Amino acid sequence: MKPTLDFIPRLFTIEGAVKYTGDSRAKLYQEAKSGNIQLIKMDGSTRIERQELDRYIDAKAKPLENTIAA
What we know:
Elements: E1 11-12, H1 14-21, H2 25-33, E2 40-42, E3 45-49, H3 50-60
Antiparallel strand pairs: 1-3, 2-3
């Protein structure tokens, strides 16, 4: 099922997490290996909870400095 504005899944496959975060598959696995993202196994498939991805995005996001001259 594709995420829509009406429905965002609770669990993402790695491919879904790639689309959700904009990071590559390799980057997500690297972040998991470093302990920055927790992966779970469900029926033999690797999944990532949406809350985990949101936490990861919030942690890596940095506000832009105001570059508009007054």
